[in-house]
Structure formats: structure tokens, C-alpha cells
Write a structure and sequence with these properties.
By secondary structure, the chain is an alpha+beta fold. It contains 6 helices and 9 strands. The two termini are about 25 Å apart.
């Protein structure tokens, strides 16, 4: 059990889980992040399950690809689209899991997706604030990783032709980020450790390879502190005007000399 149980006077200890989660977004370290929306959407939205329809997903990805100009690289555009999506879904879901011990309703039939003007994921809509966490083991992340992200990644790989490993890497980038962020929360120190431990697990309890194993590395590159470098490139650079990301493994200055995690 995390320290929330001893902080009943804090706003995130509210009986209403929606109020509790939104309160976390009003102060550091989550105050710069976009919170999910709750209730009935007032904008056009898609159910997440609709994205498993090949025709629907192809239409969404094609619309986003054309925003980069004629002949834009579809694989790279799909990769960037997935980064919008995974940041919108994984950060609030895992934040609620780790800080509030709540499981948000991110089932593919429950969650709705609001799209931006270019077809990019803009916000997720959830019907309610979730239920209390039932598992303290790695199974606590199964609803997000296995039930939600796995079929979507398979669908994205099928319509784009990009390796599923790149989409898992994109997801892992945000998963590691929110794990680290939760661990440094002043009121929940170390809260992200269960998730960070999951990222260090090469083989899952059921014998499957963990597709989120070590998505980023911390390398000794001559600076005062280790540099955070992604294990795989997101291929964003294949789009016009898009440089390599700061933590891209293809950057010469990010080539490892000594590994440290």
C-alpha cells in the first residue's frame, strides 16, 4: 500500500476517484501533463475498439500522414501517431495505478478517443474514475499492456508495415517516463518502482518475452549524469523537416561508452 492511505487530508485522497486523479494533475510533477477527460464527450470521438477495424485505422493513419505533405512516409507517420496515442493512454492510466492504486476503465470498448485537426490523438475520454486495484503483482498492468495495447500495436503494424517492436518502444518510452515521474513524486516517493521493475523483467511469469523490456538505457556519455537514450529509433526522421529525437540511439553523441541504469 502506498502512502495515500495516510494522507486523508490531501485532495487526491478524495472519495471520488475522478477528483483524486485530477487533483494530482494540478501540482508537480504531473501539472505539465494533459489529464484525461471523464463523462460524455462533447466532441466527436471513436471507441478505442473501432481502431481495430482495419478500414477505420487506415483512414485515421492516412489522414495523419497527409498532414506531413504529399508522399510522406507512412511508417514514420504511424509511429508518431502512436506516440500521441500511447502518451494519452499510458500516462494517466499508470499514474492512477501507481499513485492512487486505481484501475482506470481503459478497456477497448470503454475508452473513447478524441482526434485533433490532423487526425492525431488529442485526448482520451473515460466513463468513470475506475476501481480499486486488485493486484499488487505484475498483473496490475495487464489491462493496459495485454488487453489494450497488444491488439492495437498488432493493428498498427499491419496497416503501416512498421515493425511492432517500434510501437512497443514508443509505448515503453512513456511507460518508463511515468514510472520515473511517479517515483519522484514528493508525496509518493518510490511509487513507480513496481512499474520500473516490470521494465527490467525480460521474461514474464507466463513465459512470454516482455516486449517492454528495457525500452530506454542510461549511458555514460561524458556528462555530469547518465544520458537517457531510447533502445530503438522511432523513425520520425523519415518525415520532412523532422530531426532525430534528443534521446535517439542513432545520434552519434548518444553512442554508448559505458552502460549504466
Amino acid at each position: 500500500m502506498n502512502s495515500m492511505a495516510t494522507k486523508s487530508s490531501e485532495p487526491w485522497a478524495a472519495a471520488n476517484p475522478v477528483e483524486a486523479l485530477l487533483a494530482l494533475y494540478r501540482q508537480p510533477p504531473l501539472d505539465k501533463l494533459k489529464a484525461p477527460a471523464f463523462g460524455q464527450p462533447d466532441e466527436f470521438t471513436l471507441t478505442a475498439s473501432a481502431l481495430l477495424d482495419r478500414e477505420v485505422l487506415e483512414g485515421v493513419v492516412s489522414r495523419f500522414t497527409t498532414s506531413f505533405g504529399e508522399g510522406a512516409d507512412r511508417k514514420a507517420a504511424a509511429s508518431i501517431w502512436s506516440k500521441y496515442y500511447f502518451s494519452s493512454v499510458s500516462i494517466p492510466t499508470l499514474g492512477a495505478n501507481l499513485l492512487l492504486e486505481q484501475t482506470l476503465p481503459v478497456g477497448l470498448e470503454q475508452m473513447r478517443l478524441e482526434l485533433g485537426d490532423k487526425g492525431q490523438p488529442a485526448r482520451i475520454w473515460l466513463p468513470h474514475g475506475g476501481v480499486s486495484l486488485h493486484h499488487q503483482t505484475q498483473a496490475r498492468f495487464s489491462a493496459l499492456f495485454d488487453d489494450h495495447c497488444t491488439p492495437l500495436i498488432e493493428a498498427l503494424a499491419a496497416v503501416s508495415g512498421l515493425s511492432a517492436k517500434v510501437f512497443w518502444s514508443n509505448l515503453g518510452h512513456y511507460v518508463e517516463f511515468i514510472g520515473k515521474t511517479c517515483s519522484r513524486h514528493p508525496d509518493f516517493p518510490g511509487a513507480g518502482e513496481p512499474l520500473l521493475g516490470y521494465l527490467e523483467t525480460k521474461t514474464l511469469p507466463d513465459g512470454r518475452r516482455n516486449p517492454l523490456y528495457q525500452p530506454v538505457r542510461y549511458l555514460e556519455l561524458g556528462g555530469e549524469t547518465p544520458t537517457r537514450v531510447r533502445r530503438l529509433c522511432c523513425v520520425k526522421y523519415r518525415l520532412p523537416g523532422e530531426p532525430l529525437c534528443g534521446g535517439c540511439p542513432l545520434k552519434p553523441e548518444n553512442k554508448p561508452t559505458k552502460r549504466q541504469r
